Structures are given as structure tokens and as C-alpha cells.
């Protein structure tokens, strides 16, 4: 009786190869932990003779050959399994050949459409990751993990390609898929390093610009195409594929800035930060729906910051995010600059241009949470890998996002190496860390029963605290002079104190208390402000407990709060006068400064990420005057050491009069390191001009009026002191001399002694 075709095929498999059938099944099902054990070159015995077997899994192939790279000879491969497993056995005794490597042969294929291709065998190349890499990753101390994981252009023995590596310890199988293999998960299955759980594969022939993802077969059997957590670039959303990118191709020209950065970012340096969202700062008037590119923005932003006197810019998150409406705060690609505005090299060009223009660059960094998008980090290998499995620990109730598991070594390593990556590859000068309060407290925005206490029964997130300390230690150790800035809204102590004295180790902390109290005060009509005087003076009780930055950020001009100008009370004139007064008070108050875009010229509309700022308002003198005043404040702040040298110690500030709530007037001294270098600041928080207002001063000298927010140049009413005032040796406010000043309505006046 004649055998059936299926039985005949099975008999041929057993006769023609030493590969057992049970070893082929995981490969066909894309859940083989080590496809190298089956594929690529292997030493075998053929009829008692030593031989080399080359195997390839080519499910789309009709015919295949092994091609000798040196001689061009082709040896046909036999199809040893109907699913598409091919093999060629080469006698080593006849040829003297004992082994093959990836450079010595290629595989030629004719597919079902008759197209012929020749490629090097991915399963003939050694892995990039070594034992030290895998050990450090498991230990959570591989700070340059971005040089190993992800997708990296690599040349091995003259063969170029891309090395892929991804951490997915609980996956059944992982494959690289992309436009190069028709997104077929069977073709480029990866090898799992045990016990680290990192999967790796070198794919020859791939180049810069290749689109790819990881096809992950989860324990449940579900197959999900995931973005590379370490990818350097991605497609423009809503597309989600990653892009192979060589970050080292950009040639930097900012050596002068980088060499002097430590001094420029010093605690005694002027730091005035302009916060902006790249997609809505400016747009092309001829095409207002189009984002400007990084390269288009560069010359405009440099010129504007120089004109306005800002020392730094803070870019809202530039890492890749699927939902534009998250403003970048729901990140999927932590190592990928968003492609909305161009390539990674284009962002480098922008940063380089800013540095050459003398402007530092801070970026928002978001280690507190990540979105639930299926192509992102959530349930990456089918398990709670980057996040906690228990929603009481792993989900943000307010934002609908996932919380990182900071206690897992690989996760904290991922985040810290990401922070260092931006400082290394993009020359970033500072990281503003978003939502630190949500990281510190286990019960953040949760009711009783909705959170799990720490091992001591407390509400502090001990793993997150340890993570933040290590982040700050490594950042400051490896990149001296770089700023780390905490957005932290609670009374947690020591946020900006070194870790060796029990602090978290940040350089600066946003003074959210000052911001909230000050805005609350300014929302009051001026006639009621005398009842709220303490909302201004309270900040000086704690002003030197941290290294504070005074922020009016994007959060203050969204969600129905209105623009900064619109929040000011009174008629049109008073709104502008109040805002100039507010900025004058802010720029002379101890602490570094941050202002969100649009606030500097009086944007009327609440910020909308889908529209350009209202630059056309500058045709009006009131808006232009406000812009001139902010520019004046920045240049005054930079030129006067008394306003920036001693920001974080009480020696840089001294009250002259903080008790006059009836008149709603504040007066104080700001002092430089040199005690003879000081300024007198006086603010009138009512629209009532006050003539002959007496203030005590340290000495009977001429005091020049170097700043007056009521100047007509800034849109004011021009009440002032005719250039200055002579102090007389008459005691007042506990001081040996005094002067009588004219206080303009709703204004800040700054005087400097001239001896």
C-alpha cells in the first residue's frame, strides 16, 4: 500500500535531519526561548562524518540556498519541515571547514512570488550583551543601559545591521517585526538570556530609518506588538512604530556652553526660566494648523530669549507620547524625542542653537506614571512588569495612568538611565521632575482602603524615595552642574537638600506654596487686600528651608483658570498694572524664576495646546509694555547680584516694613554676597498713589530708582521719584537713615544706593 503524502513527508523529516520534531514546534509557534539552538550553523555528524548544518526558518520561501560569501558558491537547502524549516549540511572533513560565522555565508531565498533575495543569517552572530551587562541590569545599576537595550546600529566582521534587545522576562517569545520582514513575527525570533529575561537578536542588513516593533507572545498566548521601551525615535502619531536611529551622527558646537555650564547653573547665578510647549509657542501664520519644526523654532526662540533676557528655557515633555492632549505628560517613548517636530537630530540642533545663544535647556521628565496604551509599557510581557499588579499601588486614580514599580531593580534602572540619557545624548542642562508628590505618598489622592501602607505601616512610598535619591545622586555625580528640579507641592522636608543629610537631593524645588498664596492674594480686589496681607508675608517664614524656584507654570493657565492677565482684578488698566506689580514682586523675591509662555506679554486666552500664542496682541501698547517690563526685569535680575547671589539663605533678604497691611505696602532689602551691594524694593498693592512714604534705610546716600513698573515705557501712569531720592540721617524702621518715596499705584519700585 502506498504511503500518504503526509506520512511520506514525516518519514523524510526523520531520515534527512537530526532535528527532533518536538524542537520545531516552539519555533513554529513563536515561543522558542532560544531559536539559536535550532537555527544558524551547527556542528553535526552526517553518516559518521563531521559536518556543518545551516538551518533557517523561512515560512514564505519556495527555495533556499546557502551562499559561500568568499567564493559565491551556492548549496541548496532542503525543506525539512512543511512549515518552512530549511537545512543544508556541509561536510567539514572534505573542505577542512570547521565552523561558519555570520560574515562567511549568506542565505538566498526565492519566495512564493518568485522574488529572489540574499541576506546574512541573523542566527550566525554572537550577542552584544555580555555577562557584566546582564548582571548590572539585574542589579539595577547599568546606568548606560540605553547603549545596550533597544535598537543599535552595529557592524560585525564587516556585516552591518541592527542589534535589538528588550527586557520581557515573562514572555513566551519575542520577535522583531518591521517593514523589513513584512511584520511577520515568525521570521526574526529573539533569544532569551536566562535568568535576566532580556531577549536579543542581531538582524543584518538593516539601516538607519528602519521601522520596527517587538511582537510579544504573552503567557496567556496573546500576541501584542509593543513599542521598544528604549527606542530612540518613533513615527509621527497616531502611527506607533519605532524608527532605528543613530544618535551619534550629530556634531555638536556647544563646547563653550558645556564648559561653563556648572557656573551658569550655580545657586548664586541668575536663573530665569521660560517654560514653553513647542507645538503651540508659535505657528506659521499661513498654516496655523501646522507645528513648526525644531529647526524652524531654533532661530526664533534663541532671538526671543535673548531679547527677553531669559537664562533658560524649559520644554514641556519632549519624549514621545501618543496623545497630543496630554502635552507630553503621558509618555510611551521615554528615550525617543517626539517626532511631531522633527528627528532627534533636529531637536539636538535646537538645543545646540540655544546653547550657542547662551541659553540653558531644561526638560520636563515624567517618572511618576505612564499611560495604558496597549503598545506601551503596560503589561509589557503579559505581566505587571513596569507597574504594580495591585491597582491600589499601580494606578493613578486621577489621571487613569500606571505607576512605576520603583522597588524593582530593572524599573528603577530604566528610569535613572533614561534621565542620564537626556543629559548624555542631548546635552540637557536640567530635568524638572513632574508630580513628585504623587510619588512620595502611597495615599496620594486616595481614600481610606484605596492604598496599601508601607512595611512600617506608614503612607510614605519608601521605594520611590530611594529611587529619587539614587536618581539625584547619579545625576549630580555624573553630570556636575546639571539641575534637578522637583515639582513637589507638599511640606515634605529636605527635597532640595543633599541625600547625605537625609534629603532627596534635588537642586531646586518649585515653591508651590508661594505660587498659590500669591495668586490667591492677587485675585482679591485691592480694597480687600489689607485683610489678606499674611498671604504675601507668609512665604518668608519658610523661604530658606529649600532651594526654591518661583513658578507660574502652564498649570496656572489651564482648566478654566484663565490666563495670567485675565486672573487679575480691576478694569483694563488695573489688570495690566496688577500683572506688572506681580512680576516685579516675583523677580525681587528670593528664589529662581519660571514663567510660562504668553504670560510675558499678557495673553488673554487661556492656553490651548492646539493654537499659537496670541502674538498679534503686541500691536497694542499695553501688551508691548508688559513684554518690555518682563524683559527689563530679566536684565535687571541678571545684572544685579543682590537679586540672585544669595537666594537660599536669609542673609540675602531683610524686611524693612512687612506690617503695613492697612496700606497694603511691602518694603524689603535684597543683598548680594558683598553686604554693601543691596537694593531697596517697595511694592504698593493698591491703586492709590502714596506720596512721601517714609522708609528706613541702612545709610544716608543717594538712592537711584533703577526700576519702576509704573513707567509709561511699560504702560504705566508714570508716577515716580525723578530718578532717585536722597536719604537723610534720620532714624526710621530701626535704621540709621530714612527716605521719603513716592509709591505709584499697583507698582513695584527698586532703588539702589549710589555712594
TrEMBL record:
UniProt catalytic activity: Transfers a segment of a (1->4)-alpha-D-glucan chain to a primary hydroxy group in a similar glucan chain
State whether keyword Glycosyltransferase applies. yes
The UniProt entry's GO CC annotations, sorted and at most eight, read: cytosol
Q: Does the keyword Acetylation apply?
A: no
The record places the active site at 434, 487
User: What does the record give under GO molecular function?
Assistant: 1,4-alpha-glucan branching enzyme activity; cation binding; hydrolase activity, hydrolyzing O-glycosyl compounds
Q: Which residues form the Glycosyl hydrolase family 13 catalytic domain?
A: 275-621
Q: Please give the biological process terms from Gene Ontology that the record holds.
A: glycogen biosynthetic process
Top EC class of this enzyme: transferase
Top-level taxonomic group: Bacteria
UniProt keyword terms in alphabetical order: Carbohydrate metabolism, Glycogen biosynthesis, Glycogen metabolism, Glycosyltransferase, Transferase
Q: Report the pathway entry.
A: Glycan biosynthesis; glycogen biosynthesis
The record describes the protein's role as:
Catalyzes the formation of the alpha-1,6-glucosidic linkages in glycogen by scission of a 1,4-alpha-linked oligosaccharide from growing alpha-1,4-glucan chains and the subsequent attachment of the oligosaccharide to the alpha-1,6 position.
Quaternary structure per UniProt? Answer: Monomer.
Q: Which family does it belong to?
A: Belongs to the glycosyl hydrolase 13 family. GlgB subfamily.
The name of this protein is: 1,4-alpha-glucan branching enzyme GlgB
Amino acid at each position: 500500500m502506498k504511503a500518504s503524502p503526509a506520512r511520506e513527508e514525516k518519514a523524510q523529516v526523520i531520515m534527512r535531519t537530526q532535528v527532533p520534531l518536538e524542537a520545531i514546534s516552539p519555533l513554529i509557534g513563536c515561543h522558542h526561548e532560544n531559536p539559536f539552538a535550532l537555527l544558524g550553523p551547527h556542528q553535526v555528524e552526517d553518516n559518521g562524518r563531521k559536518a556543518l548544518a545551516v538551518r533557517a526558518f523561512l515560512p514564505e520561501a519556495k527555495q533556499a540556498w546557502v551562499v559561500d560569501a568568499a567564493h559565491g558558491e551556492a548549496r541548496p537547502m532542503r525543506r525539512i519541515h512543511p512549515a518552512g524549516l530549511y537545512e543544508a549540511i556541509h561536510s567539514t572533513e572534505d573542505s577542512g571547514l570547521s565552523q561558519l560565522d555570520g560574515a562567511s555565508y549568506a542565505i538566498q531565498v526565492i519566495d512564493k512570488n518568485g522574488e529572489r533575495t540574499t541576506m546574512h543569517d541573523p542566527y550566525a552572530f554572537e550577542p552584544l550583551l555580555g555577562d557584566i551587562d546582564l548582571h548590572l541590569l539585574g542589579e539595577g545599576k547599568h546606568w548606560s543601559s540605553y547603549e545596550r537595550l533597544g535598537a543599535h546600529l552595529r557592524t560585525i566582521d564587516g556585516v552591518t545591521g541592527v542589534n535589538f534587545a528588550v527586557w520581557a522576562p515573562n514572555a513566551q517569545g519575542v520577535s522583531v517585526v518591521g517593514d523589513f520582514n513584512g511584520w511577520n513575527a515568525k521570521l526574526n525570533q529573539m533569544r532569551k538570556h536566562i535568568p535576566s529575561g532580556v531577549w536579543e537578536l542581531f538582524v543584518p542588513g538593516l539601516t538607519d530609518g528602519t521601522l520596527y516593533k517587538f511582537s510579544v507572545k504573552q503567557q496567556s498566548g496573546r500576541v501584542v506588538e509593543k513599542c521598544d521601551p528604549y527606542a530612540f525615535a518613533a513615527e509621527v502619531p497616531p502611527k506607533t512604530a519605532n524608527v532605528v536611529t543613530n544618535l551619534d551622527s550629530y556634531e555638536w558646537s556647544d563646547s563653550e556652553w558645556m564648559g561653563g555650564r556648572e557656573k551658569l547653573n550655580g545657586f548664586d547665578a541668575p536663573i530665569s526660566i521660560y517654560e514653553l510647549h513647542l507645538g503651540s509657542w508659535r505657528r506659521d501664520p499661513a498654516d496655523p494648523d501646522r507645528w513648526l519644526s525644531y529647526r524652524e523654532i531654533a532661530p526664533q526662540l534663541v532671538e526671543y530669549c535673548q531679547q527677553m533676557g531669559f537664562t533658560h528655557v524649559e520644554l514641556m515633555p519632549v519624549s514621545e507620547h501618543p496623545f497630543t492632549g496630554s502635552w507630553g505628560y503621558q509618555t510611551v517613548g521615554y528615550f525617543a524625542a517626539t517626532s511631531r517636530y522633527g528627528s532627534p537630530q533636529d531637536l539636538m540642533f535646537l538645543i545646540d542653537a540655544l546653547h550657542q545663544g547662551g541659553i540653558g535647556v531644561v526638560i520636563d521628565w515624567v517618572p511618576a506614571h505612564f499611560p495604558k496604551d496597549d503598545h506601551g509599557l503596560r503589561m509589557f510581557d503579559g505581566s505587571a512588569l513596569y507597574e504594580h499588579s495591585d491597582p491600589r499601588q499601580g494606578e493613578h486614580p486621577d489621571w487613569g495612568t500606571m505607576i512605576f514599580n520603583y522597588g524593582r531593580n530593572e524599573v528603577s534602572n530604566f528610569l535613572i538611565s533614561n534621565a542620564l540619557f537626556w543629559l548624555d545624548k542631548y546635552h540637557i542642562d536640567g530635568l524638572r521632575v513632574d508630580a513628585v508628590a504623587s510619588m512620595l505618598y502611597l495615599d496620594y489622592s486616595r481614600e481610606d482602603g484605596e492604598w496599601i501602607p508601607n512595611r512600617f505601616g506608614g503612607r510614605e512610598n519608601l521605594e520611590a524615595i530611594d529611587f529619587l535619591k539614587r536618581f539625584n545622586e547619579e545625576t549630580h555625580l555624573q553630570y556636575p552642574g546639571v539641575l534637578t528640579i522637583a515639582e513637589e507641592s507638599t511640606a515634605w522636608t529636605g527635597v532640595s537638600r543633599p541625600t547625605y543629610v537625609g534629603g532627596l537631593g534635588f537642586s531646586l524645588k518649585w515653591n508651590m506654596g508661594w505660587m498659590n498664596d500669591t495668586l490667591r492674594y492677587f485675585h482679591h480686589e485691592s480694597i480687600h487686600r489689607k485683610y489678606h496681607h499674611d498671604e504675601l508675608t507668609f512665604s518668608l517664614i519658610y523661604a530658606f528651608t529649600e532651594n526654591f524656584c518661583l513658578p507660574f507654570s502652564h498649570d496656572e493657565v489651564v482648566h478654566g483658570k484663565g490666563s495670567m492677565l485675565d486672573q487679575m482684578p480691576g478694569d483694563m488698566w488695573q489688570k495690566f498694572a496688577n500683572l506688572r506689580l506681580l512680576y516685579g514682586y516675583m523677580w525681587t523675591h528670593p528664589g529662581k524664576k519660571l514663567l510660562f509662555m504668553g504670560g510675558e506679554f499678557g495673553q488673554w486666552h487661556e492656553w490651548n495646546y492646539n493654537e499659537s500664542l496670541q502674538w498679534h496682541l503686541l500691536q497694542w501698547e499695553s501688551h508691548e509694555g508688559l513684554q518690555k517690563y518682563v524683559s527689563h526685569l530679566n536684565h535687571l535680575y541678571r545684572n544685579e547680584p543682590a537679586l540672585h547671589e544669595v537666594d537660599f539663605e536669609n542673609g540675602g533678604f531683610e524686611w524693612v516694613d512687612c506690617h503695613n497691611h492697612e496700606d497694603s505696602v511691602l518694603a524689603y532689602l535684597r543683598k548680594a554676597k558683598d553686604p554693601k551691594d543691596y537694593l531697596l524694593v517697595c511694592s504698593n498693592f493698591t491703586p492709590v498713589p502714596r506720596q512721601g512714604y517714609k522708609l528706613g534705610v541702612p545709610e544716608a546716600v543717594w538712592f537711584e530708582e533703577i526700576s519702576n513698573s509704573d513707567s509709561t515705557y511699560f504702560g504705566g501712569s508714570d508716577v515716580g521719584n525723578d530718578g532717585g531720592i536722597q536719604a537723610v540721617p534720620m532714624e526710621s524702621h530701626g535704621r540709621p537713615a530714612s527716605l521719603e518715596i513716592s509709591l505709584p499705584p499697583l507698582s513695584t519700585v527698586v532703588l539702589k544706593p549710589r555712594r
